[in-house]
Task: inverse folding
C-alpha cells in the first residue's frame, strides 16, 4: 500500500517545465545551437554556469572536456530542458528552446548518457526502443552509423541475439545506435 501511495504522489506531481507551442519537425532541423549568456544553478546551490555563450554550427562535431563535476552533462540537460536556465537564451536553429514543443525538441537531440542501460531483449529491440515502427533496414542503418553493425552480425543470432552480459563498448555502441536511429539530424553527445 505504501508503494501505491508513492506512485500516486509521483503521478500527482505538477509538470515543472511547460512545453512551448512552436513545432519543430525533425526533417526541418539543421542543428545550429546557440547558448547566449546563459546562467544556471541547481535548486538552492551556487551557479554552475554563469554568463556562458557558445555557438555550435549545424553539422559541427565538438568535444566539451573538463574535470568531473564541471557541468559538461548539465549543458546537455539544459539543451533538452530537463532544467530551466535562470538567465540567457538557448536557441536551436534560431528558435528559443522554451518556445518549442518539448516532444519535438527532445526528438531532435540524441543523447548517450554516462550510464548506459540495455533492456532485457534483443539487440534490435534495444536499438528500436522509443520508436517501434522502425524497419529492420532502419535498425541496421543506425547500427552502421554507430559502428556497431560488425560486432552485432558476429553475435550468435545477430540482431535477434538476446542481451545478456555485454561489455561496456557494446552497451555504449548499442545505445548510440538507438540514439542515432531516433534522431537522425541531431547532435549526439557522449560524456564520460
Result:
Amino acid at each position: 500500500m505504501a508503494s501505491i501511495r508513492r506512485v500516486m504522489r509521483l503521478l500527482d506531481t505538477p509538470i515543472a517545465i511547460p512545453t512551448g507551442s512552436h513545432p519543430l519537425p525533425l526533417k526541418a532541423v539543421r542543428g545550429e545551437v546557440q547558448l547566449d549568456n546563459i546562467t544556471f544553478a541547481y535548486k538552492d546551490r551556487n551557479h554552475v554556469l554563469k554568463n556562458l555563450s557558445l555557438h555550435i554550427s549545424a553539422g559541427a562535431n565538438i568535444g566539451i572536456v573538463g574535470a568531473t563535476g564541471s557541468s559538461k552533462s548539465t549543458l546537455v540537460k539544459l539543451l533538452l530542458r530537463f532544467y530551466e536556465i535562470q538567465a540567457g537564451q538557448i536557441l536551436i536553429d534560431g528558435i528559443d528552446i522554451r518556445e518549442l514543443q518539448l516532444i519535438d525538441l527532445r526528438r531532435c537531440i540524441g543523447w548517450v548518457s554516462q550510464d548506459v542501460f540495455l533492456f532485457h531483449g534483443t539487440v534490435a529491440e534495444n536499438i528500436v526502443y522509443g520508436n517501434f515502427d522502425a524497419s529492420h533496414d532502419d535498425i541496421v542503418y543506425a547500427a552502421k552509423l554507430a559502428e556497431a553493425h560488425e560486432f552485432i552480425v558476429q553475435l550468435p543470432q545477430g540482431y535477434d541475439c538476446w542481451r545478456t552480459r555485454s561489455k561496456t563498448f557494446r552497451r555504449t555502441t548499442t545505445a548510440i545506435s538507438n540514439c542515432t536511429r531516433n534522431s537522425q539530424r541531431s547532435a549526439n553527445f557522449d560524456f564520460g
